[in-house]
Amino acid sequence: MALPKNIEKIKNLPTVFIIFGATGDLSRKKLFPSLFELFTTNLLPEKIKILASSRSQYSNEEFAQIVKETVNPKDVTAWEKFISNLEFISSDVSENKNLDLISNRLLQIEKEAKTCVQRIIYLAISPSIYQKAFENIGKNKLNLGCRTHNNKARIVIEKPFGHNFASAQELNSVLIKYFEKEQIFRIDHFLGKETVQNILAFRFGNEIFEPIWNNQYIDNIQITFTENIGVEKRGSFYDETGGLRDVVQNHLFQLLALVAMEAPKSLTHEHFRDKRLEIIKSIKTMNPKEVAKCTLRGQYEGYQSEENVNPNSNTETFALVKLFIENKRWHGVPFYIRTGKKIMGNVTSIIISFKEKGHEIYENFWAKPLPNHITIQIKPTEGIGLRLVAKKPGFETVLEPVDMEFCYRTSFENHQPDAYERLLMDVIFGDQTLFIGEVGESWKIIDPIVKTWQSGNPPLFTYKTGSWGPKEADKFIEQDGRKWLAPYLTICNI
Ligand code: BG6
């Protein structure tokens, strides 16, 4: 893997991660595996401590065993070294219990290190207790960092930030009482994915695309994020949240922003964030009539019997929205965004579908022009494809679609850091470029949709697990004279 340029800068910077919610799904699936990978690839600071915390009681050994089961380490020596830096402290950040133990341990670590230590607080807890967590972190002065060097603690917060515009604002007002801008890292892990970052390089590093990246050439954009899995152990979180707020408001809006934004002046945090924000602000909000016409929601069969899900739940596990951006470049181009759980395809992709303008000399050789499209695939493998039209070999003139693809796997040998690995490193460096600066703008688009959905409009459709979602989703796009394009690359996935 290409190392960060200034890695030496942080190597000698003693650092402590304080992870609240250390036994939760996110910590087990993403945080500990990523921290261990960074540790084994020698990227973490030499003096690193991880203070893991949750309400349960565990000894350090018991907790290390829990982590071991999910990390599944192959290198035993590295694992032993890793866990010698891992400690467990039981606390309740929402009830202000035992946070003093964490403060005291931090002071002790600093004493032992004989220097200031960079403190990074990671909130891998339920978003419903964020506000109390901010207050209690503040009360215990965990936000202050190491005072001797005027070093400030950093805080990493997972999405969703709030559950609507008003609550996001309110939450933010509490957060900023205790933390300054440079201390806050609102994470959206999609921004840490390699292909997602590559969208900008693709658009602005290859000048051939810019002249056609607009409504004159592009007919529609399809953003798909579907998963085979259901809600698994996250029934209670998911049932409160639903697909629209779980992934559309954040991950998928960020994808839309990268595909649609204007070029930033530079890749600095401010310029990059401003351009993303500018495009999200220009998404047209919908009135109830438009919501009924331009959105669709579904629930997979059997969802209501999932663990910790309300048996009468109306929560959507499938969401589809058609959005328009109100600016010159995108006027009239629909952005179809769909997401679903327990769907046949386990795929994340963006398709830029060009207008169907076959040249007249070929008029008689195809029933219908075959539109070109670009597929940016993020999952299951990463790559970019271009659908072209080619003449089929032979005496007759017959045109057929063919694919040209760039696959990360075959083009680069480097290990691709997982999104969390990348973003955890950025937090250590204090680089906010790939973090969310804005609070609430995307809620302004989502809130009217949620409100109309709550009034029963459009109805909640059910769908079979392992399908592509409600069949009404096909009709939805067909009414516009379009169809869902296969969201996969062909060559990269073989
Ligand atoms: C999370 C959502 O943010 O992203 C989950 O809460 C979803 O519902 C997950 O499964 C998907 O992330 P990835 O990186 O595995 O595609």
TrEMBL record:
GO terms for molecular function: glucose-6-phosphate dehydrogenase activity; NADP binding. Residues 200-484 form the Glucose-6-phosphate dehydrogenase C-terminal domain. GO terms for biological process: glucose metabolic process; pentose-phosphate shunt, oxidative branch. Residues 18-198 form the Glucose-6-phosphate dehydrogenase NAD-binding domain. It comes from the Bacteria. Pathway: Carbohydrate degradation; pentose phosphate pathway; D-ribulose 5-phosphate from D-glucose 6-phosphate (oxidative stage): step 1/3. The keyword Oxidoreductase applies. The active site is at 251 (proton acceptor). NADP(+) binds at residues 21-28, 55, 92-93, 159. It is an enzyme of class 1 (oxidoreductase). Pfam families: G6PD_C (PF02781), G6PD_N (PF00479). GO terms for cellular component: cytosol. Substrate binds at residues 189, 193, 227, 246, 341. Its EC number is 1.1.1.49. It catalyses: D-glucose 6-phosphate + NADP(+) = 6-phospho-D-glucono-1,5-lactone + NADPH + H(+). Keywords: Carbohydrate metabolism, Glucose metabolism, NADP, Oxidoreductase. The keyword Oxidoreductase applies. Belongs to the glucose-6-phosphate dehydrogenase family. Catalyzes the oxidation of glucose 6-phosphate to 6-phosphogluconolactone. This is Glucose-6-phosphate 1-dehydrogenase. The lineage of its organism: Bacteria, Candidatus Curtissiibacteriota.
